[in-house]
Hints:
The protein starts with a strand and ends in a 17-residue tail after the last helix. The chain has 616 residues and is of the alpha+beta class. Strand 23 and strand 24 (459-467) form a beta hairpin. It contains 13 helices and 30 strands. The protein is 24% helix and 32% strand. The protein has five domains: 4-172, Rossmann fold (3-Layer(aba) Sandwich), CATH 3.40.50; 208-297, Translation factors (Elongation Factor Tu (Ef-tu), domain 3, Beta Barrel); 316-389, Alpha-Beta Plaits (2-Layer Sandwich), CATH 3.30.70.870; 394-499, Alpha-Beta Plaits, CATH 3.30.70; 503-613, Alpha-Beta Plaits (2-Layer Sandwich), CATH 3.30.70.2570. The protein has a six-stranded mixed sheet, sandwiched between helices. It has a six-stranded antiparallel β-barrel with strand order 7-8-14-11-10-15.
Amino acid sequence: MDKIRNFCIIAHIDHGKSTIADRMMELSGTVSKREMKEQLLDSMELEREKGITIKLAPVTMNWKGYTLNLIDTPGHVDFSYEVSRSLQAVETAVLVVDATQGIQAQTLANVYLALEQDLKIIPVINKVDLPAADVEGVAAQIINLLGCSRDEIIEASGKTGLGVDKILDAIIETPSLDSRSSGAWQGEEKRRSPVATGRADAGRELSDGVSTKALIFDSYFDDYRGVVLYVRIFEGEIKKNAEILMMAAGTKGLALEVGVLTPKMSPREKLSEGEIGYIVTNLKTTREARVGDTVTIAKNPAAQALPGYKHVLPFVYAGFFPVSNDQYKDLKEAIEKLSLSDSALVYEPENSPVLGFGLRIGFLGLLHMDIIRERLEREFGLDLIITNPSTNYEVVLNNGEILEIKSAADLPDMSEVLEIREPWVKGEIILPKSMIGNVLNLINEKRGLQTNLSYIEDRAVIDFEAPMANLLTDFYDQLKSATSGYASFNYELSGYRTEDLVRVDFLVGGHKIDALSIMCHRSEADAIGRETTKKLKEVIPRQNWEVALQAAIGARIIARETIGAYRKDVTVKIHTGDRDRKAKLLEKQKRGKARMKRFGKIDIPSEAFTVMLKRD
Length: 616
């Protein structure tokens, strides 16, 4: 037990977490030079293409006689729930800060998450080899944030390997933590990494009546092997072929194989207390082993489950429809597989008169939605239509009943509605002092309210509140434009507020298209109506008859655009200048177009359903 250390690497986006993990694996001899490649733990094709970490990745290393279990975590705000899961499986967090960028929004968010879990934080300044590195300036920011001393901060470079051995040494330094839960540090020495804690009587065999408790912090579905769990053993041990029980789900299974990740799967006879490893189970469906559940031995189950994770609630919803209705079953099966390892993914069936059968899926943000869409298209070969993303609203009816609606199409008749509440978020933006004015203007445009303004060295921190719906589409892009790319942004849901909200419907050729309906504030409805009808005019193809595009609130039309008809020259075959004959042919054409307008069907292309995303 005292030779095991569990730690994770946390940082803002692109501050070098995965690169430092690469150097650690190389330095400890976990991976040979021949097998080494950049961002080795980012195994998903999308991760390698976009250069970001999406899924947490565990790996076991050996250093100076100690077993080190590392979890590499994502940096994007949309995947912060992956970070919070990692933190519950470890005792130490290595906080990486870029020497050229300093402390950013996700750095702060991850530090708060680590402090909530009572973790020991090891501060590291990365990229010190770059010409633009401001090591002393960034060190001052870290001291200001953590209250540590200058000699506790390790200077490193993930690219050259400088200082990585010092990080590993800091992790294995003799611990003096009483227990994982108390967080009480003893002794005058600067002790850094607590041991992997479990029971005090760690040596006892299971036959003595000691129950096993293991936390599932991640899992995925393997087509050939079934459900594979990543676990942290807190008490007892799990042997190969043992019968296991998921305490929350109440399902039983077999541990067909147990082992550690180096980073390939390395089978072992058993996993013991304090260790992080994997269990290959015989479970066949995705609902039988959820992330955050406690695994115990079926013969001698634990009396009480581990705390697990707080349930992550999505706040961005979008409709996913297959282009061909034959693919609906494939879409449902694909989402079920993805939802096993992604606990934030919530979905329910949806039916649209225009698009047919599909699913309404909940996400943590637009990047999360984009990643899921790409995974569905690449890994499962699906061809999808995605509707405009929206957030969820609370509707209070006249009789006091409260409904939660996930799209504007679900809104009941307005005569029955007393009030509509929309979600607001608390946001935090870190940016250079000289750019505060631009960002405050942007927050005001989004109906936001600035709540606080503070400073860390040469940077400003703006705290604000704003409606979630207004930050959904292009707030992040506009923020980057207003600050030349120097600002970073972090947010969390703060609650629901009653606002003067209306449903804006869009009519194509007089027919209301529910999938295009949106909710917005009354003051913004006219502008959104005009803007959206202009964009629809660009994407909906011309027909042989005139097509009216209208935006309406209830029965009141607030905006209109007209797509002109194709005009076939029916007079071309007349070789004389007979006006009566021309008029007769044109009148006949006019009657034909009027009949087509009554019966003609307009084919709406898939781009029309994401027109709100294309703000500019």
